[in-house]
Amino acid sequence: MTSSVAAPLTTHDSTRIDDTRIGAVRPLITPALLEEKLPVPQAAQALVESSRAAISKVLHGADDRLIVVVGPCSIHDHDQAMDYARQLQVQAEALKDDLLIVMRVYFEKPRTTVGWKGYINDPHLDGSFAINEGLEMARRLMLDILGLGLPVATEFLDLLSPQFISELVSWGAIGARTTESQSHRQLASGLSCPVGFKNGTDGGLKVASDAIQAAQAAHAFMGMTKMGQVAIFETRGNSDCHVILRGGKQTNYAKADVDAACTLLKGAGLREQVMVDVSHANSSKQHQRQITVAADVAAQIAAGDARITGLMIESHLEEGRQDIVPGVPLKRGVSVTDACISMTQTVPVLEQLAAAVRTRRAR
Ligand SMILES: O=C[C@H](O)[C@H](O)COP(=O)(O)O
Ligand SMILES: C=C(OP(=O)(O)O)C(=O)O
């Protein structure tokens, strides 16, 4: 029986045996189309290149600064992210001799079960899933932040979205829920930026150590080109990978945890170095505990521990978090995912870390 109503864009056909659980298939813009609309200016390109090289030098022991990945748990608004970026850029410039500050510009949220999956997946925060708009808004924001002179960091979660933004990224993360995924390790092996692998959500570090070994190797896998064509990608391997201690069943930021992580890494033939995420399970998701944890890590750095090469902080314009509730206006500058410390609370933390780096250098 035929219907007079226009069919939705879908491949669903009850006579077929595939796509039986697909509700609709909508067209997606290509990375090349977006790049033509939003090209990378020369200055932004130079910043990405120089900041990636600087991060790589820290990871290889040729620069004694601390990499600090700091910013909102998730981006949900362009103007608020730009306000944050402008304030962070002032700190990045003031502390640049000691800290290599990269802004967290996280567009993709891995959820424990379900929830808002981020600015690319649902940029209007209302379940309309305007992914084409989300990709454009994400790329535009990264370009605007780079325009301020501030490098950007992001989590790579989706396997196609990197083609739309990854040339703008100076440091990337693979999250706790995907560190064990072969596809994400393969992706990391071909990314142009340094990559941090979180330990597993249970605190397991071996998955991250295994991930670094996998990402260092060359791989061949299926993907999509900038022109939207499927292709086989052959990667060269990424030698700029490291672990991120984010806690699990227990916290793992203390000196004994750094010792244990480095013993494991050494045993696997990897560089003895860590980035400490002071948020997530290391703060028991209590945002203000990030300040205490950062102070503990700063003390370890000041005591001379050169194995701590990076730190991650979840910070927004205002402290705390809020739920997305249909019809209820959101508070300005407050996270819609994990709770963050405020910019006002973040500045002294950054200053304390910079002082710790100076003490370490003087030892
Ligand atoms: O960083 C953000 C969250 O910790 C992560 O996306 C999981 O969030 P959820 O447990 O609220 O889904
Ligand atoms: C989701 C994140 O962290 P994790 O993978 O450690 O939960 C994050 O850093 O935003």
UniProtKB/TrEMBL annotation:
> Can you say what this protein is called?
Phospho-2-dehydro-3-deoxyheptonate aldolase
Q: Which residues form a coiled coil?
A: none
The entry's family comment says: Belongs to the class-I DAHP synthase family.
Q: Which reaction does it catalyse?
A: D-erythrose 4-phosphate + phosphoenolpyruvate + H2O = 7-phospho-2-dehydro-3-deoxy-D-arabino-heptonate + phosphate
Native source species? Rhodoferax lacus
Please provide, alphabetically and separated by semicolons, the GO molecular function terms listed in this UniProt record: 3-deoxy-7-phosphoheptulonate synthase activity; identical protein binding
Pathway entry: Metabolic intermediate biosynthesis; chorismate biosynthesis; chorismate from D-erythrose 4-phosphate and phosphoenolpyruvate: step 1/7
UniProt-listed InterPro entries: Aldolase_TIM, DAHP1/KDSA, DAHP_synth_1
Q: Which SUPFAM superfamilies match?
A: Aldolase (SSF51569)
Alphabetized Gene3D superfamilies for the sequence:
Aldolase class I
One GO-annotated biological process of the protein: chorismate biosynthetic process
For this record, the Gene Ontology CC terms, alphabetical, are: cytoplasm
Q: What's the superkingdom here?
A: Bacteria
Give the function comment from the record: Stereospecific condensation of phosphoenolpyruvate (PEP) and D-erythrose-4-phosphate (E4P) giving rise to 3-deoxy-D-arabino-heptulosonate-7-phosphate (DAHP).
Q: Name one Pfam family in it.
A: DAHP_synth_1
Q: Which UniProt keywords apply?
A: Amino-acid biosynthesis, Aromatic amino acid biosynthesis, Transferase
E.C. code: 2.5.1.54
Q: Where is the DAHP synthetase I/KDSA domain?
A: 57-346
